[in-house]
Each structure stands twice: as structure tokens, then as C-alpha cells.
Specification:
Number of strands of chain A: 2
Strand order of the largest sheet of chain A: 1-2
CATH topology of the largest domain in chain B: Rossmann fold
Number of strands of chain B: 14
Structural class of chain B: alpha/beta
Radius of gyration of chain B: 25 Å
Order of helices and strands of chain B: HEHEHEHEEHEHEHEHEEHEEHHHEHE
CATH class of the largest domain in chain B: Alpha Beta
Shape of chain B: globular
CATH superfamily of the largest domain in chain B: Response regulator
CATH architecture of the largest domain in chain B: 3-Layer(aba) Sandwich
Radius of gyration of chain A: 21 Å
Distance between the termini of chain B: 94 Å
Oligomer: heterodimer
Largest sheet of chain B: 6 strands, parallel
Number of helices of chain A: 14
Strand content of chain B: 15-25%
Strand order of the largest sheet of chain B: 2-1-3-4-5-11
Helix content of chain A: over 70%
Largest sheet of chain A: 2 strands, antiparallel
Structural class of chain A: mainly alpha
Shape of chain A: globular
Strand content of chain A: under 5%
Chain lengths: 359, 417
């Protein structure tokens, strides 16, 4: 209890101290949202669609089913974290995709043999973390670029799953799906005022909060952030920046693995051979992280926002007769507009530092 | 610094607001005249049926399944006067929520689901919405419901015709080996295997010419590289004609056949399946087996409009024109579609039409067409019908009997002599 009260107090202090900064961020976000939606409307108008109608569909359909909205935001929230944590430590983790695959695969194997969802989730996290650590170790000790390793390993994982699905783990009744998670091991829904919501969403939110705590209130988090801002400073302060890279990739990998196993155990229950259940979630996570400004709390909201755009976007085709790609274009425009101020600030501070160094 | 950035933000906000005003004005401008055309069609006497076509993941532009579904729906909207909307789901996990929300809205008289991925989601939602009609194309939930129609194809029938033509072409190319690059070892492919082998043996029976038969599963529908290597292997084993039964995988097989010809290793042909695929390389693909998803979609919509709806499983074969061999008009239509999507580059649809026409005239002799027509007639009249194996053991048994030359082992009804 003491520590919770202490935590809350520190949190309040933090907000009070950085009040103005948060205000600027809020105004910035609102302004860029307006700009993003306006440019989107302009694009729609030029293409001959009625922007008001399309936006109405996007929001009303996107938000109409809270359970669908929040369930769909769960995996991308976690792959968002998988990108954000290493980013704060200065590593570019685009392997969220592969880490999500391996998390789903391992937890499928564990949960079908043990019928224990907790064990399955744990195994998925460990698997994701192991894959993340592997890439970090390659980078630190062998100088392998983490982006290239991640791209290649993503495909290794993709085809590994595809092979196991078609050869070993397929469901004899429905050959295009994997064996399902046993009924007694599935995570269900919990009743809330806005309807029954899948348990996995709450687990993902708790995970985000824990990551937030780790990043901003523990020594490891401090080490990660310092190493990310300046490896030399970290060394000077007595931290090992290489260790920070390994920790961050392990944490990020664990989050992506958690995303894969939650998706499987609490939502889809089986993987299909077209891989549509898993494919792309890791990459979407990058967008989620950027939109959430690499902040775990921000990522919770940006994942829900993304989920709304995806769900509403699907319905645009049905209700407005637009091609399905239009929704993707619209999503892209809005997300870029929302992420721009953050990138702009990063660029400004980078240039300021360069100027200082020159002096 | 802070004040500076705030003023910057304020400026941006003003710009944004100006843009918003312009856009809103523009939007209002477009909304303004919009309602005028809508009241005019409303006093139509008959009820206008609303249909939603739910594509496979991936949606339109595949020049196969989804495009054919679109074709069938467009035909229905023209001929039956129904109002059609389309939807492309992003992934498997979106399918159940989509079915639920569309069924709950009660907007659509029928939801037509394209492809096997919908099987599980439909099975989990159909019972909850008894008043909503569903049609599942090319798959079945295995459950009979009043509100659900599953439309399957009798693939054996088209594969048997292709088998005869393939054997005939192999002889024209100076060999006697035909082969197939197949996808996964699953029930729909078993039906193709039985039909194709039956056709080859039918040719053998009627002409007395020996046919050497090769069949290879690749285990995938999406890997063009696997299709290429498997295609090459079969060509090296002497295959003159290769039948592609593996979705995207057999595009790799097409490439293998093209390379085989271009590198001067011999002359060989490829055969496509489902959509007309001749346009991909008309000099080397003279033929495609047809699986008419468009006919299936049209059939389902027709059942609703004409009030002949009855839940259960329907199979479409040669008689219903649900399967067959693409005629030259079909070849040209798909070539035009390929041109529109930019996939047909160096040729016009007319070139495709002419190339395929002359190829067919040159390599498919009249005696082969006679055999094909004879068998097709028997099938259409219902004199013979093929077995559909339920288990892998049954499938293996039929294949081994066929290989021994016992054609009647593949038949449910009737016999050939």
C-alpha cells in the first residue's frame, strides 16, 4: 500500500512539474488530428466521395462494438510496446512480427498439451523474449544490424509456422486451421458497463502500465532511457549500454510474444494457413508506437484509435462502395499527420544538439 | 522556447481551421445535390433485394476467386435487379464480428461468403441469426441449416475433361506423360486428382494409347518457388503437359514451363484452373479448367430473389455450368481484366484470344474433342457421376484402382466401357 501511495504521489508531482509540456502535447495532438482529418477529407473529396459520410461510417462503425474494438486493439498495443521499448534504448525493433508469431506458436503448443492458459501465456512471452534477446546478442556481440536480422527472422518464423500448420498442427476437421486452443483453456470475457469485454484487453492494459512503471520508475528503465539518448553518457554514468540493448529487446520481445499468445488464447483460438490471423500485426505496431509517442500510456490509446480506423475502414467499402484500399490511404494520412509533430520535435532537438557540439 | 512553440501551434491551428472550413463547405456542396437522385428510384414497385458479398481476405484483384465472385454479383445486379455491396475483411478474426454486425443490422437479404476461410466463423454465427440467410461458396460447414446454403463444385467433372485434353496434347507434343502440381493434400484436391487421373485413363481406354501420369503435392497454395521447383522436376521426368492446381503456387509452375520452352529444353504446356489463366502466357497455356464462382454467387442470389431458397448443400457441375473448360470468350474476358489491372503488359486481349485459339486448333485434335464431348454429355445427362471420397483411405483406394485401369472405381453411378 505504501508503495502505491508513493507511486501516485510521484505521478502527481510529475504531472504538475511538466504541466506545460503536457498541455503543448495535447494541443499539438488535437491540431494535428484536425489537419490529418482535413487532408483525408480533401483526398476523399478529390476522389469523388462524400467526406462527411465516409467519416460518419468510420467513427460510428469503428466504435459501434466495444468488444470488437478493444479485442482488436490488444495485439497491436503489445506489438506497439515491442517497438517502443527498444526505441527508447536506441534500437530499432521491427521484429515484432516474428516475435508475435513465435509467441502464438509456442503458446499454442504449450496450451494444447497442458490445458493451462497461464502457462501458455508465460511460454509465449518467454519465446518472444528469447527471439528478441537473440537479435540483441547478435547486434551487441557480432555487430549484426538488428533491422536486417529482424527482417530475415520474421520470414523464418513465418515459414516455420506455415510448415508446422500444414504438416503437424492442422485441425483434421478444418484443414486450413491449426488445432484449436482447448475449450477449458480459453480466456473468456468479463462483464462491464459497456458490454462483455475480452479479458485479454485488460491484460494488455496492465502490461502497458507495468512497462510504464518499469521505464519511468525503476533503475532498469532509467538505464534504458539514458542509453537510448546517449550511449556515451550511459557509459560515463556507469551503465553498460550493451546491457540496455539486450534488456530492451528482451522486454520488447516479451511484449510481442504476449500479444501473440493473448490473441491466440483469448481471441482467435487457432491460426489459419493463410496467416491472416497474425500477418501484419507487428508492422501495425510500429505505427501504433509512433502515434503513441513511444509512451506506454499513449500506446494504449493509439492502439484503440488504430483499431477503430481498421474496423471502420472495413465498413467503408460495404456502405460507400469505395475500394478497400481507400480506408488504408485514409488511415495512413491521419496517422502520418498525427505522428508528424513528434518527428518534427525529434528533428529539432537533434539539430540543436548537433549545433551545440559544433560550438 | 515554450512560448515560441505555442505560438507556432496557434498558427498551425488557424491554418487547420481554415482548411476544415473549406472542406466542410466542399462537403456541404456535395451533400446538397446528393439527395435529389435518391428519391427517384424509391417508388419502384417490387422490393429491391440487398445483397452483401463478403470476399476472401485479400479481396478483389486476384484475377481469380474474388474477381469471379464480383462478376457473378454484377450479373445478378443487372439481371435480377438486386442491390449489391462488397466487403473485404482484413483477417480471420474480423469475420465473426462482421457476420454478427451485418446479421444484427438486418439490412441484407443474403450474405454471400466467398472462400473456405469463412467456414469456421459462419459455423459459429449462423445459429444465432435464424432470420439471416447465408451462402457459403466453395466450402461447407458440414451442418445443414435452414438459413445457410453451402455451394460446392464437382471438380472431378472438369478435371476429367482436362485430363483427356492433356493426354491428347501430350501426344501432339511428342510424349505421353502428363503431370499436375497440386497444393495441399485436402479433400478438394482429392477430387481434382480423381478427375484428372480418370480423364487420362479414359483417354487410354478409348484410344489405346498409354498415358504416363504424374501427381505431386507441394503442401502450399502460396509459394511460387515451390511451384517452380516441382514443375521443373515433373518436366525433367518427361511431362509434356502440367496442370496447375495450387493457387498462387502454380504460377511458379507456369514460370517453370515458360523457362523450359524458352531455354529450348523441349516443348511443354501448362493448364490453369479456376479462373481463365491463359493470359499469363498464352503461347504456353492453351487451356484452363473453370470453377465458376460467378455462377455459384449468381445461383445463391437467384434463390433468394425467386423464392426458391432451401438450406443445405448444393453442388454445381458441368450440367449447371458451375465447372468446365473456359471458352475463348472467357479467356478474352479475363485477359481484359488483366489488362485493366496492369498485369497483362505486352499484349492486347485480342492477341491473347488469337494466340490461344490457334494453339487450341493446332494441339487439340478433333478426336480429342470428340472424347471430351462424349464424356461431358454422359456427365450432363447424369448417366455417370463421380465419387467424392470422405476419408484419405477411401481416396487412396480410388486412386490405386484408377492407376490399375479400373475406371469404374471412381464412379458413384453408371460405368464406362
Amino acid at each position: 500500500m505504501m508503495s502505491l501511495a508513493h507511486f501516485l504521489m510521484k505521478f502527481r508531482e510529475r504531472i504538475r512539474a511538466r504541466y506545460e509540456e503536457y498541455l503543448v502535447i495535447t494541443i499539438e495532438t488535437l491540431a494535428s488530428a484536425i489537419i490529418g482529418f482535413s487532408i483525408g477529407a480533401l483526398v476523399l473529396y478529390i476522389l469523388g466521395f462524400n467526406p462527411a459520410k465516409i467519416y460518419f461510417i468510420l467513427f460510428s462503425k469503428g466504435l459501434s462494438n466495444p468488444n470488437y474494438l478493444l479485442s482488436k486493439s490488444t495485439p497491436i498495443m503489445l506489438t506497439g510496446l515491442a517497438f517502443a521499448i527498444p526505441m527508447l534504448a536506441g534500437v530499432f525493433n521491427i521484429g515484432g512480427e516474428g516475435q508475435l508469431y513465435i509467441g502464438a506458436l509456442i503458446s499454442l503448443i504449450v496450451v494444447t498439451s497442458t490445458h493451462n492458459p497461464a502457462l501458455g501465456i508465460l511460454a509465449g512471452m518467454v519465446a518472444g523474449a528469447a527471439l528478441g534477446t537473440f537479435k540483441a546478442v547478435l547486434k551487441v556481440y557480432r555487430g549484426v544490424n538488428e533491422v536486417i536480422a529482424a527482417i530475415m527472422l520474421n520470414w523464418v518464423m513465418y515459414f516455420l509456422i506455415l510448415y508446422l500448420l500444414t504438416e503437424k498442427l492442422y485441425n483434421p476437421q478444418i484443414p486450413h486451421e491449426s488445432i484449436p486452443v482447448p475449450e477449458d483453456a480459453r480466456l473468456g470475457k468479463i462483464p462491464t458497463p459497456i458490454g462483455d469485454i475480452r479479458l485479454i484487453f485488460f491484460i494488455a492494459v496492465i502490461a502497458s502500465l507495468i512497462i510504464y512503471y518499469i521505464l519511468y520508475y525503476t533503475n532498469i528503465g532509467y538505464m534504458l532511457r539514458v542509453a537510448g539518448l546517449s550511449p556515451k553518457t550511459a557509459k560515463y554514468a556507469g551503465f553498460n549500454p550493451n546491457l540496455a540493448i539486450i534488456y530492451s529487446m528482451a522486454l520488447g520481445g516479451a511484449m510481442a510474444g504476449l500479444g501473440g499468445s493473448l490473441l491466440l488464447i483469448g481471441y482467435v483460438y487457432s491460426i489459419d494457413t493463410t496467416m491472416s490471423t497474425l500477418f501484419g500485426l507487428g508492422f501495425t505496431g510500429i505505427g501504433v508506437a509512433l502515434l503513441g509517442r513511444n509512451n506506454p500510456i499513449g500506446i494504449i490509446f493509439s492502439a484503440i484509435f488504430f483499431s477503430m480506423l481498421i474496423i471502420g475502414g472495413e465498413m467503408i467499402e460495404l456502405l460507400a462502395g469505395a475500394p478497400p484500399e481507400l480506408a488504408d490511404v485514409l488511415t495512413g494520412v491521419i496517422v502520418i499527420a498525427l505522428a508528424l509533430p513528434y518527428m518534427y520535435r525529434m528533428l529539432i532537438s537533434y539539430m540543436r544538439i548537433r549545433r551545440l557540439i559544433k560550438k | 522556447m515554450l512560448r515560441k512553440s505555442i505560438s507556432k501551434v496557434a498558427a498551425l491551428t488557424i491554418v487547420a481551421i481554415v482548411i476544415v472550413i473549406i472542406v466542410v463547405a466542399a462537403a456541404l456542396f456535395t451533400i446538397g445535390p446528393a439527395p435529389s437522385p435518391s428519391p427517384s428510384p424509391s417508388p419502384t414497385p417490387a422490393k429491391k433485394y440487398k445483397v452483401a458479398i463478403l470476399f476472401d481476405v485479400g479481396g478483389r484483384g486476384d484475377l481469380s476467386f474474388n474477381d469471379m465472385a464480383w462478376l457473378g454479383a454484377e450479373r445478378a445486379s443487372k439481371e435480377l435487379g438486386v442491390e449489391v455491396s462488397y466487403l473485404t475483411p482484413k483477417s480471420l478474426q474480423d469475420m465473426i464480428p462482421l457476420l454478427e454486425s451485418l446479421s444484427e443490422s438486418g439490412e441484407y437479404d443474403i450474405l454471400v461468403l466467398i472462400g473456405f476461410l469463412w467456414t469456421g466463423p459462419l459455423n459459429q454465427t449462423a445459429d444465432k441469426y435464424p432470420q439471416q440467410k447465408f451462402a457459403l461458396i466453395d466450402a461447407t460447414t458440414g451442418v445443414i441449416r435452414d438459413n445457410e446454403v453451402d455451394i460446392l463444385f464437382r471438380e472431378q467433372e472438369c478435371a476429367s475433361l482436362v485430363g483427356i485434353i492433356a493426354a491428347g496434347m501430350a501426344y501432339e507434343l511428342g510424349g505421353n506423360t502428363i503431370g499436375a502440381v497440386a497444393g495441399m493434400d485436402i479433400p478438394p484436391l482429392w477430387k481434382f486428382h480423381i478427375g484428372y487421373l480418370f480423364g487420362a485413363k479414359y483417354f487410354e481406354l478409348k484410344t489405346g494409347k498409354k498415358v504416363n501420369f504424374l501427381w505431386q503435392y507441394t503442401g502450399t497454395f502460396t509459394d511460387t518457388q515451390a511451384g517452380y521447383t516441382t514443375g521443373m522436376q515433373l518436366l525433367q521426368q518427361g511431362a509434356k503437359v502440367l496442370y496447375g492446381l495450387a493457387g498462387l503456387t502454380h504460377v511458379g509452375m507456369f514460370n517453370a514451363v515458360i523457362d523450359w520452352n524458352k531455354e529450348g529444353k523441349g516443348k511443354a504446356f501448362a493448364i490453369g484452373q479456376d479462373a481463365s489463366q491463359e493470359w499469363y502466357a498464352p503461347e504456353y497455356i492453351p487451356l484452363s479448367g473453370a470453377k465458376r464462382v460467378d455462377v455459384a454467387v449468381y445461383t445463391a442470389i437467384e434463390m433468394v430473389v425467386k423464392g426458391t431458397w432451401k438450406g443445405g448443400i448444393i453442388t454445381l457441375g458441368l450440367k449447371e455450368e458451375g465447372v468446365g473448360i473456359w471458352d475463348l470468350d472467357g479467356v478474352e474476358w479475363f485477359a481484359e481484366l488483366a489488362k485493366e489491372t496492369g498485369q497483362l503488359k505486352d499484349m492486347t486481349p485480342d492477341d491473347v484470344y488469337n494466340t490461344v485459339k490457334s494453339l487450341r486448333e493446332q494441339y487439340i485434335k478433333d478426336y480429342v474433342w470428340d472424347l471430351v464431348n462424349e464424356l461431358a454429355e454422359k456427365i450432363k445427362k447424369g448417366e455417370i457421376a463421380f465419387k467424392t471420397p470422405m476419408t484419405h483411405e477411401e481416396y487412396d483406394a480410388i486412386i490405386s484402382e484408377l492407376l490399375k485401369g479400373n475406371l469404374n472405381a471412381a464412379l458413384e453411378k453408371g460405368s464406362v466401357t
